[in-house]
Design a protein that fits this description.
By secondary structure, the protein is an alpha/beta fold. It is built from 19 helices and 14 strands. Strands 2-1-3-4-5 form a five-stranded parallel β-sheet, with helices on both faces. Strands 7-8-11-6-12 form a five-stranded parallel β-sheet. The longest helix has 23 residues.
Length: about 450
């Protein structure tokens, strides 16, 4: 049975959930009213799902979420709260929360979320235990990901989730900074789905004025405005039977958001200037580089549309968090643009690679691609050198700390472990003094030494 830990200072809520879990017959529950005991329980016992209240005395829900993240505990968390607090939801989501529920709890909704959380946890544990999981060879549809160049374990795990999401007709929301490959992921979902033989239409919602987008998205009837000399199909009709990918969904105006919500709920719409409703069978995949929780809080994005789109969610990490991929991608683009321009630039110099590793790449993979594209055109030797890189890039890396020849990119976690070991050596293993130097509490230091086995 799936093991569920419930932490809430309200005994009535604990009683309700205990009975609910027993009646379901699928879940084994442990109730905890005193949140100060949470750390010990999470350390000693293993659970699949955590139902967590946020507003508790002594140890809050956020404290527990941070503890789970710091100690890399594999548990799927569903947050419970008595108020709709967007800021709190954002903090919880950033700390890896699977779902966010506002009390009072509706039984069927809770049951649906528990089932999805249990599946998420099973998949997470399978990937964690399976050495083959972090490789392209373990994917059923390897060729659908051939356009996405990566060796990063986080990305390879994302591919596994993409394969699962593709089997459904659910809407998918793809989060990530510009240039991280959101459209490539959307194409992979389409090509892995039963709709693969139908159209995949990609639209950047941010490039259309609101009135023009309405006409292009829904189509228009003859005579609906000056210049409408005939009926015209919109993106929705063109994608009928297939997939419609809407990039920069956060740019849509509120009136168009209302119309899109109707399409998702009713699977029908009206052309501009027409009173005849049109039925469509379209899978909607959307992407954004905005924080939609912030946009909801500002009144720029509809909460009901967000929850309708966010049935399945994928977060794409920025290139700066995929250090292993920088060299792989740079060499891939070098080969690609050599062929395109008939050049023979055989390798990338060490100083250039060092600059790549030290640069945050705000434009992500697309920016790296454009850098190589630009540099290879002007390079006159068989090695890509600093002098061929664009001036803006050199100016933004001119103050970067030089990297040693033996530099190896490391995660922040690895660097933190090394630094803690050095500080403890410096203080003769005096944890109180070391904590002062590190500017953290002694308790936090002890937790980190246990985590890193220092």
């Amino acid at each position: 049975m799936t093991k569920v830990l419930v932490i809430d200072d309200d005994q009535a809520i604990l009683n309700f959930i205990r009975i609910f879990l027993l009646q379901s017959g699928k879940y084994q529950g442990k109730m905890l009213q005193d949140s100060s005991q949470a750390f010990d329980i999470l350390k000693k016992e293993e659970y699949d799902i955590l139902l967590l209240d946020m507003d508790m005395p002594q140890v809050t829900g956020l404290d527990i979420l941070k503890y789970i993240e710091d100690h890399n505990i594999n548990i799927t968390t569903i947050v419970l709260t008595g108020v709709e607090d967007i800021e709190l939801a954002v903090k919880a989501m950033k700390l890896g929360t699977f779902e966010y529920l506002v009390k009072p709890i509706e039984e069927q909704n809770l049951l649906n979320i528990l089932e999805r959380a249990a599946e998420e946890n099973r998949e997470s544990r399978r990937l964690e235990s399976d050495e083959e999981a972090a490789s392209l060879e373990s994917l059923a549809g390897k060729k659908e990901f051939k356009e996405i160049i990566t060796r990063d374990k986080k990305m390879l795990k994302i591919f596994h989730y993409v394969e699962k999401f593709a089997r459904t007709n659910n809407s998918v929301l793809i989060w990530g900074e510009s240039g991280t490959g959101k459209e490539l992921i959307a194409k992979a979902i389409h090509n892995l789905s039963e709709r693969k033989d139908k159209k995949f239409i990609a639209v950047n919602a941010g490039v259309f004025a609101n009135d023009l987008f309405s006409s292009e998205f829904f189509g228009h009837a003859k005579g609906s405005f000056t210049g409408a000399v005939s009926d015209k199909k919109g993106f929705l009709e063109e994608a009928n039977g297939g997939t419609l990918f809407l990039d920069e969904i956060g740019e849509l105006s509120l009136p168009i958001q209302v119309k899109l919500l109707r399409v998702l709920q009713e699977e029908e719409f009206y052309r501009l200037g027409s009173t005849q409703n049109i039925h469509v069978d379209v899978r909607i995949i959307v992407a954004t580089n905005k924080n939609l929780y912030d946009e909801i809080d500002k009144g720029n994005f509809r909460k009901d549309l967000f929850f309708r789109l966010n049935i399945n969610s994928i977060y794409l990490p920025p290139l700066r968090e995929r250090g292993d991929d920088i060299k792989v991608l740079a060499e891939h683009f070098l080969k690609e643009y050599n062929q395109k321009y008939g050049k023979n630039v055989r390798k990338i110099s060490k100083p250039v690679l060092k600059l790549f590793y030290s640069y945050p790449f705000p434009g992500n993979v697309r920016e790296l691609m454009n850098l190589i594209n630009s540099a290879i055109i002007v390079e006159t030797t068989q090695e890509l050198k600093k002098k061929s890189l664009p001036s803006y890039f050199l100016e933004n890396t001119s103050f970067a700390e030089p990297l040693a020849d033996d530099f190896i990119p490391k995660s922040l976690e690895e660097m933190e472990k090394e630094h803690i070991k050095k500080v403890l050596r410096y203080t003769g293993n005096n944890k109180t003094q070391a904590a002062k130097i590190l500017k953290i509490s002694r308790v936090s230091l002890i937790q980190k030494t246990k985590k890193y086995e220092v």
